[in-house]
Each structure stands twice: as C-alpha cells, then as structure tokens.
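Sequence and structure are kept together here, with a separate record for every protein. A complete record is shown below as an example:
=====
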Amino acid sequence: MWTADKWKDYEVLDASDGEKLERWGKYILVRPDPQVIWDTPKTDKRWHHPNGHYHRSSRGGGEWEFFDLPDEWRISYSELTFHLKPFSFKHTGLFPEQAVNWDWFSSIIKGAGRPVKVLNLFAYTGGATIAAAKAGANVTHVDASKGMVTWAKENAAASGLADAPIRWLVDDCVKFVEREIRRGSAYDAIIMDPPSYGRGPKGEIWKIEESVFPLIRLTAQILSKDALFYLVNSYTTGLQPAVLTYMIHTALVPSLGGQVTADEIGLPVAASGLILPCGASGRWTRGH
C-alpha cells in the first residue's frame, strides 16, 4: 500500500464504528467513512469534543454539526497551502491521502530536466495541480465546477503560485479531451481523479464503471511521444488496483511501452498504528 505518512498538519487520530477522528491543523473533525466497518473502543476524548461532526442520514446524505469551527482555515503540506471549509457531503476540499501521489510525480517532474506539460482532469480544488506546478510543471487544470476551479485558484495563490503557468478551465473533461485530440495537443503527463458519479456542466452523466476506460483510451491519444507519467485515482471499490493496472496497461503500453503499477493508498491511524484504506491509484511511467 502507498501511504501518505509525511503530513504534519493532518492526521487520522482514530477510526471506529463507521467514522474517523481527524486533526486538520488545530481543528478536530469526525466524519463518516464506509471503509471503517470495525468497532473498537473510542478512548480518545476528542471523539466527544470535536469542532465539527458530519452525521450521515439513514435516507442518504447528511449534515454538519459545528462546535467552534471557522468558516474557513488553512493547512500546509511541505510548500503547499490549502484552504479548507466544510461543505456538501462531508468534504473539506482536500483528500490528504493524495499526498503520496503528489510526492511521487513531483520527483518525476523535478528530475525530468526539461519543460513538462501536465493535464489534470477532474481537478477539484487543485491539490495535484499545485503540487505539479510547485515542482516546475506547466499545468492545465480542468473541472466542470466553476466553484471548485475558483477554490483551486485560491489554493494556488496561498501556495505562492498565483503567477505560475497554470491554465484554469471550467469544462466537461471528456469533451475537453476530444477537442484537444482534434487540435493535435500533447501532454507529457496526465492526472485524473474521476468521481464515481457526476454530471457535467450541461447535465452530462458520468458513471465511472462505464466511462473511465473510454476516457483512458481517449487521453492516451494526447500523451506526447516522450511522456513521463500517467495517474488514475479511484475511490470506487469496484476499481481495485488490478483493474486499474489492466485498463492503463491496455490503453498505454502497446503504443508507449513503459511500466504500470497500482496499489491501494492509505493514511496511518495514530491510535492503532494501522493503515486506513482510502481508494486506489494506478500509475504508468516511461521507465528506462
């Protein structure tokens, strides 16, 4: 498992009975997690005195309950800074487990010794975008939500990247890639973090099991001849590491060579010393 274990401003303190107890900077949150199917004693007193608690509803969805939590605050990871705020369906605007991927591709970008063009699809609030930009890449950031792109710009500015070569686009990711193919565009690296289910700006329906492999095939057409890396993240339990490996290998290796690796990603849990699984990632690299 690839573990995001270098955080200072974030940690999973404990996990039990469908929930995780987290520290985000100086604030404590309790949020539901479907992976936490075990029930262990909640001995940490912070379980009972969080700054925010997201309660799941038996009818689906849920709502936040706040106790002295600001509308917005910041945390940092290395040289990156993120604005956080509790919003719809338990989220804060950041997936901390992705730091393990940020470190991985940042080292590739820094070691390339040449300009690197990165495309980040379903780019959300820009964690991967600002990590790649901080490493020296030119980044095209695409997300269907105008609000998320605005949030990502704020994160870039907070990280000292307001003037970095980042192209911010509010667009349907599939339609954007199709246009890039027609334009003859090429990228040295592609990152995608597709949702399990979503809608584009004009109501286009996205279901990951039906749509992700066609998109991987499409994006393969805009990888440069000397592309460096390719990354697909999944929070859908059906897309296990072996499935990611199979899709990426099928779409990329016959034409580009290289190697594919995939694994679960996770976060250490302070109370137990164990790892909380947080989805999976598939990686392709050029190799030597």
Summary: The CA atoms of residues 129 and 139 lie 6 Å apart. The helical segments are 99-111, 127-134, 146-158, 173-183, 208-220, 241-256. The chain is about 25% helix and 35% strand. Residues 2-71 form a domain with the Immunoglobulin-like fold (CATH 2.60.40.1180).
